[in-house]
Amino acid sequence: MSHDHSLNPEVMPQHPEKATLEGKNKFLGLWFFLGGETVLFASLFGTYLALKNSTAGGATSEELFGLELVFLMTMLLLTSSLTSVYAMYHMKNNDFKKMQLWLGITGLLGIGFLGCEIYEFYHYIHEFGFTFRSSAFGSAFYTLVGFHGGHVLFGLCWLSAIMIRNAKRGLNLYNAPKFNTFSLYWHFIDVVWVFIFTVVYLMGKVA
Amino acid sequence: MTNNTKSNEFQRQQNKEEMKKQLITFATMILFTIIAFLIVGSGIMSKMLAIPLLLVLALIQVAFQFYYFMHMKDKGHELASVMIYGGVWAAILTVSALSLVIWW
Question: How far is the alpha carbon of B62 from chain A, nearest alpha carbon, in Å?
Fold first, then answer.
């Protein structure tokens, strides 16, 4: 009983996501994880940079990539980053319904992004015969971009899980850190995408 | 109780101010993205000029994302910064090593 009360105070603290020890630990743990993710993606980027010209006579990055679709995907993901900021804004104002609404919009934008990516891969495979096995460039490209897409997919599953699980609970000091760590993770996915659209698509189109 | 609502009002005002900054951050990021795509789409720049510029634009965008959207500018983010900069340091080593391997 007292435990329940301490997690549902009458007045929410200014930072409900870091008001409990568990919340603080989740926050630190996620940043630790993101440091590791940085290294993981760096090795994939390094591999891609080293292999991007090994096309084995197949399509080059200049022939493959279309800027329109990449621009659309960038806008979708960048906007979903803002909508998750809105969700955290409503969390800090203790407005559960609005937080859920903005998280829902974030999820829809993420689904839009993933749809575009699936279409993109489908297009490369069917129009250009550019696959994971067609060249070293293909392997490096699908590993890097696919790994990012996998992170988006994981984020969407994570988001649906916390949204559905907490739908009837409302906001409290127990689940506020969960929403906050998701939002940090989602921003990090956007950080990785900024490098992907710059290094893979834009630089691939220039070179 | 009145005290609570008062402090709540103050918090709400603070959150609102913060949200304004976030919106400016977002607008800046969209602007930088459009510039980056225009540089490549229009083809006005040579490769030697375009690539460093694209990388600088990406780095600024990422800094905005970390410091504003992910609140690294706020207090209590010392360990978060250590972890991210640690990751970035390893990332720089990895990318430079792999680039060096294919230099010749």
Answer: 6
Q: List pLDDT tens digits, range A30-41.
A: 999 999 999 999
Please return the burial class of B5, using the count of CB atoms within 10 Å of its CB with bins 0-12, 13-18 and 19+. Answer: exposed
Contact A61, A204 (CB under 8 A): yes
**CA nearest A70 in B: which residue?**
B37
Dihedral over Cα of B18, B23, B27, B30: its sign: positive
Instruction: Tell me the pTM.
Output: 0.93
Q: What's A199's DSSP letter?
A: I
- The answer to whether the Cβ–Cβ distance between B58 and A194 falls below 8 Å is yes
Q: Residue ranges of the domains in chain B? A: 2-72, 74-104
Q: Give the H or E element holding residue A60.
A: none
pLDDT tens track for A40-90: 999 999 999 999 999 999 899 999 999 999 999 999 999 999 999 999 999
Count CA atoms closer than 13 A to B17's CA, side-chain side. 6
Residue among B69, B29, B24 nearest A75 (CA): B29
Domain boundaries, chain A: 17-206
As for the ipTM of the complex, it is 0.90
The CATH H-level (homologous superfamily) assignment of domain A17-206 is Cytochrome c oxidase, subunit III, four-helix bundle (1.20.120.80)
Report the Cα–Cα distance between both ends of chain A, in Å, rounded.
Answer: 64
Distance CA A186, CA A180 (A): 10
B31 interfaces chain A, CB cutoff of 8 Å:
no
